[in-house]
Amino acid sequence: MAAKLSRLWKYRFLYLLGLPGMAILFLFHYLPMGSLLMAFEDYDPWVGLIHSPFVGLKHFAKLFNDSKFYLMLWNTLKISMLSLITFPAPIILALLLNEVRSSAYKKTIQTAVYLPHFLSWTIVVSLTFFLLSSEQGLINKIIVSTGGQAHAFLFDKSIIYYIIVIQSVWKGVGWGSIVYLAAIAGIDQGLYEAARIDGANKFQSIMHITLPCILPTVAVMLILKMGSIISVDFEQVLLMTNALVKDKLEVFEVYIYQNGVKSGSTQFSYTTAIGMFKSVVSTILVITTNRIVSSNGMKGII
Fold it and tell me: What global pTM score does this model have?
């Protein structure tokens, strides 16, 4: 105990610096978790969380018997799996940016690819409409001008998932590459010098030095990505939804919004159960992926 108190006093200023962040984490992340009790109650805001009647797994049974449950799960998984396929995109971008030698050119490219991250989904969807709209879309105007026939891209069920994934990649690939660029910057340059002396070309240096050195970072980012595999961006999907593709974009986030907020209903317990189901699945995926990574000799996050 004395040793712990001594260590605490020695690094007291570091703990003080971290105290505001810890307080925010506790107030806005851990403290609200007490409300998960609503998933097991028929929550009544007039009597409060403690005095609401306990109903056990009633709302989870209702969720699993909901005719839309498997549709929402399947739609979410399809969007997430397509997003997972694009996971290497920030890695590839980071590798390409690392090979740019002109400082001015590199900064220009970085600015261009980072900028979409700061755009709201409203702007991104508006740009998508500007490009793909049947009547006003730039792409359809080009198709028509070359003798083709306009296509209703935004109402086509067969490609709506690809449009959403392309939006996500365009918006996030630049920002996602920052972590990998930082990892690449930390690689010992002596390794590249030795490789050049041995006659290795650029591609061989990337394959045998850069990628193995950033593999632990890739593993951590993959674990974190698996934590959101059963979630999609609510605002993006909501704005991209229309009557013709609604059944393809019926996901948990939109369902919670429509049943718990938009309709003015008081299904607090049911929507909490949906959120808790997602959290449990995400936790299982993170732990499983972490164990797979750890079993292959790399350090996970747990």
Answer: 0.80
